[in-house]
Amino acid sequence: MIYLDNAATTRIDDDVLAEMTPFLKENFGNPQSQHSYGRAVANAVTAARDKIAELLSCRSEEIYFVSGGTEAGNTALKGVCAERGKGHLIVSAIEHPALLESAEDMQKHGFEATFLNPDGNGRISPESVAAAIRKDTVFCAVMAANNETGVIQPVEEIGGICRARGVFYYADCVQSACTRALPVEYCDALGFSAHKFYGPKGAGALYVKSGSKISRLISGGRQEHGLRGGTVNTAAVIGLAKAFELACRERESAAAYLSGLRDKFVSRVLSEIDGTHINGGGHILPSHANISFDGCEGENILFYLDLNGIAVSTGSACSAGAVTPSRALMAAGLSESRAKSAVRFTFGKYNNFEEVDKTVEVLKRAVAAIRNK
Ligand code: PLP
């Protein structure tokens, strides 16, 4: 099996699993409990929070454990809306549904929203953010890098504009956390998710700059500094901290290794298969390659590769038998047929060059077979 869908999720690292396992077995206490079982786990949760804060160069009180990128984005957007009561939101049209649909939810509660389209390269320009800000703008979300194309967004400039204009800025760092430093100093909040960098599923962190006004979404106990009630998923939190530590430590070597795999793959595909086009331009994460194949539907390529033991994805959604092209690719101005013919290949640390070559060979057969149908 060749797994080239690392943007969807990654296989857990053995060292991460080893660190988590005791917290699923003998260290089972509730960190809220007063007795020694609870205190031992509470200390480990505190250490995990401190470790993440140190890696981000922020304060431990600014880190909230959440279930992942979806909850981080929902909490930031809806938490600011709940605090402010009314106003205008700016959300890039290429955000993950966690942000897009949260903004749509808030529109039903009287908030107004502007969905900003990217340029043809899939990049949101800082100028378009500046132009969209109104007197009543309370929140802006532009992700650090897009999940489908891997296009890196100008978060530093956008963060600077938002700060100067008093707009709360959230940067979704779910895709970029593995290979890029997180832009803590440029945003009011950011989120990332352990399962994208060899950690467990259902574990993520939300950083919120101290002094920011944000309401809780989950009422209950006083966990997570009162922002999110509910018993902490201790094993997941321990795994998140370990996975993030490894990701930060290995970031540069991982980026170099992944870009080597990806660049070889892309150059072989573009030179050996006619009618292929890279989607997204400018700076792209080293892990991502989004390629359209003329005359093919991405889904058909996906199924052909799957039958041959290769896992990839398309940004298209299939509902009621009809394929809807990716929202992010359409927002970048791609034609419907090009968006529908897109396939996303995302590389991870367990991939190797042999797999790149094998995938190109199978891909050539897939495209030929589909075009000749
Ligand atoms: N944001 C981005 C950019 C993502 O790619 C994803 C997942 O693919 C999410 C948010 C959601 O993260 P999670 O699966 O941890 O909820």
Which keywords apply here?
11 helices, 3-stranded antiparallel sheet, single chain, 16% strand, binds pyridoxal-5'-phosphate, 373 residues, alpha/beta, 7-stranded mixed sheet
The computed structural class is alpha/beta
Taking all residues together, what is the mean pLDDT? 96
Q: Name every ligand kind in the structure.
A: pyridoxal-5'-phosphate
**Residue share in β-strands:** 15-25%
Main β sheet profile: 7 strands, mixed
Anisotropy-based shape: globular
State the helicity in percent bands.
Answer: 40-55%
Total helical elements: 11
Spatially, the strands of the biggest sheet line up as: 2-8-7-6-5-3-4
Number of strands: 14
Using only C-alpha atoms, the radius of gyration works out to: 21 Å
Order of helices and strands: EHHEHEHEHEHEEEHEEHEEEHHEH
Q: Uncertain runs with pLDDT below 50, 5 residues or more?
A: none
C-alpha end-to-end distance: 26 Å
Write the layout of secondary structure elements.
Elements: E1 2-3, H1 14-20, H2 36-56, E2 63-66, H3 69-84, E3 88-92, H4 97-107, E4 112-116, H5 126-132, E5 137-141, H6 155-165, E6 168-172, E7 189-193, E8 204-208, H7 234-272, E9 276-278, E10 288-293, H8 298-307, E11 310-311, E12 317-319, E13 322-324, H9 327-331, H10 336-340, E14 342-346, H11 353-371
Parallel strand pairs: 1-11, 3-4, 3-5, 5-6, 6-7
Antiparallel strand pairs: 2-8, 7-8, 9-10, 10-14, 12-13
Helix pairs in contact: 1-7, 2-7, 3-4, 5-6, 7-11, 8-11
The structure holds pyridoxal-5'-phosphate.
